[in-house]
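[Q] Does anyone have a clean C-alpha cell version of this?
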Amino acid sequence: MFNLFKKTKKIFSPMSGKTIPIEKVEDEVFAQKMLGTGIAIVPSEGKLCAPFDAEVVQVFETRHSYTLRASDGLEVLIHIGINTVELAGEGFESYVKEGQKVNSGEILGKVDLVFLKKKGYCVHTPIVFVNGDNFEFDFKYLDTKIGQTLVATYYRK
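[A] Here you go.
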C-alpha cells in the first residue's frame, strides 16, 4: 500500500492499446518476472514513446527493445513483441540513440504491428522495471493512449 507521505511519480503509456498484468505475457521470462516486475501492453498502433523523462540507456541493435533510466534511478526495459529479436530489425524503426535525453511522450520508435502479426509474432509489449525491487508500484489495467494515459505510479522504497 502506498505511504501517504512519499512523493509518487507517474508512468504514462508508451503505446496505445490495453495494459495487462505482466503474468499474462506469452513468454515465461517476462511472465515469471525473471527480469523484474512490470506491466504489459497489447498495442493497437505501432508508435512507441518515453513513459517518463529519461536517458536512453540502450537501444538494442534490432530496434525491438529499449532501456531508459529516470533521474531517480528507475530503469525500464520496453520489449516490443515476443521473440521479435529474430526479425533482425525488420519492421522496426528507432528515432533515438544511447545517451540521449528524452521527455515523457517523446517518440522513441515505430513498429509495423501488421507485419509482426503476419509473421506470427505475439505483439505483447512488456514494460519491465529491471531494478523494481527498489520501488513500490501501483499498476493500472485499462485502455491506453500513447503518452497520455497514466499506467502506473511509483515511489522509491
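[Q] Thanks! Anything notable?
[A] The CA atoms of residues 58 and 149 lie 24 Å apart.
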